[in-house]
Design brief:
Order of helices and strands: EHEHEEHHHEHHHHEEEEHH
Structural class: alpha+beta
Radius of gyration: 19 Å
CATH architecture of the largest domain: Up-down Bundle
GO molecular function, one term: glutathione transferase activity
Strand content: 5-15%
Number of strands: 9
Number of domains: 3
Largest sheet: 4 strands, mixed
Helix content: 40-55%
Shape: globular
Protein name: Glutathione S-transferase
Pfam families: GST_N_2
InterPro entries: Glutathione-S-Trfase_C_sf (IPR036282), Glutathione_S-Trfase_N (IPR004045), Thioredoxin-like_sf (IPR036249)
CATH class of the largest domain: Mainly Alpha
Organism: Marimonas arenosa
Number of helices: 11
């Protein structure tokens, strides 16, 4: 069964990121559709998905529509039990559900004061006492999960789970505003930013520009603190070293230069997402 997933602007929509990670990280088949959150077309784009008003939203092959990321998570976990969306151990699964539910309904100060943005890192942001309290609670939960259930791997419950899906935008907020957290949380944030799926999501988000930029604040910035991408640039013409797009297999029409070599793609989006972070795309790195 292939799902249709409806998401909004990748550089800013934290809930869309959660919805997409559910499919991407657990290898569930999906077609992704963009909704115009900042283009003013959201209501029109969601008109056939009633009663959906927000993203993410998914629709299955039978036309069943599920909105809200928590409802989506439970539906997918129920339908794809072997995919491992929740931890298999009952105690770990109970704590993971608790942490996801608390993320879904809480941490309002962090969400309000630090909207997710994947463009850069703000310097000099001073968190309020309420944001600091949210960060303290998040660190408590992360340490608890790791201490009790994280011995088998690097994620909150060892193996990647829905808990990591729901806290990925939190890690992005900590990174994007240089928020003060301890060493363990800092390491978890760095691991989240380095995850290939997060790098691909951000690369796709950076293909779109904004004027004005949503949620911009008057503070100096420095580059995004995730892995530094290989320097690449779009170029007007080939010839390219490949005749077919690494993603679609279609003939190349758009071109990119990397390390003195030219590579081709079937459209501007395929090229531009690769320019933003070439190493994030296994289909492209296979050409290297």
């Amino acid at each position: 069964m292939t799902y249709d997933l409806f998401v909004a602007d990748r550089a800013f929509s934290s809930w869309s990121l959660r919805g997409w990670l559910m499919f991407e990280q657990f290898n569930l088949p999906v077609r992704t559709h963009m909704v115009g959150l900042y283009d003013g077309t959201m209501a029109e784009d969601l008109a056939d998905l009633a009663p959906a008003r927000f993203v993410p939203v998914m629709r299955d092959a039978d036309g069943i529509v599920v909105g809200d990321s928590l409802a989506m998570a439970e539906t997918l976990a129920e339908r794809h039990a072997q995919a491992g969306l929740w931890p298999s151990d009952p105690a770990a699964r109970a704590l993971a559900r608790w942490m996801v539910a608390e993320m879904h309904s809480g941490f309002t100060a962090l969400r309000s004061d630090c909207p997710m943005q994947l463009l850069h890192q703000y310097q000099g942001f001073v968190p309020s006492d309420a944001v600091r309290a949210d960060l303290d609670r998040i660190e408590t939960l992360w340490v608890l999960a790791r201490d009790r259930h994280g011995a088998s791997g690097p994620w909150l419950f060892g193996a990647y789970s829905l808990a990591d899906v729901f806290y990925a935008p939190v890690a992005a907020r900590i990174a994007g505003y240089a928020l003060p957290v301890g060493a363990d949380a800092t390491a978890y944030v760095a691991q989240t930013l380095a995850a290939p799926a997060i790098r691909r999501w951000r690369a796709m988000g950076l293909t779109k520009s904004y004027d004005p930029v949503p949620y911009a604040i008057d503070l100096p910035t420095q580059p995004w603190p995730g892995p530094t991408p290989l320097p690449a640039r779009a170029v007007d013409a080939g010839p390219s070293e490949n005749a077919a797009c690494p993603y679609s297999g279609l003939p190349v029409t758009h071109f990119m230069e990397l390390q003195g070599h030219t590579f081709g793609f079937c459209n501007a989006f395929c090229r531009d997402k690769t320019v933003q972070d070439p190493e994030a795309w296994p289909a492209f790195t296979a050409l290297l």
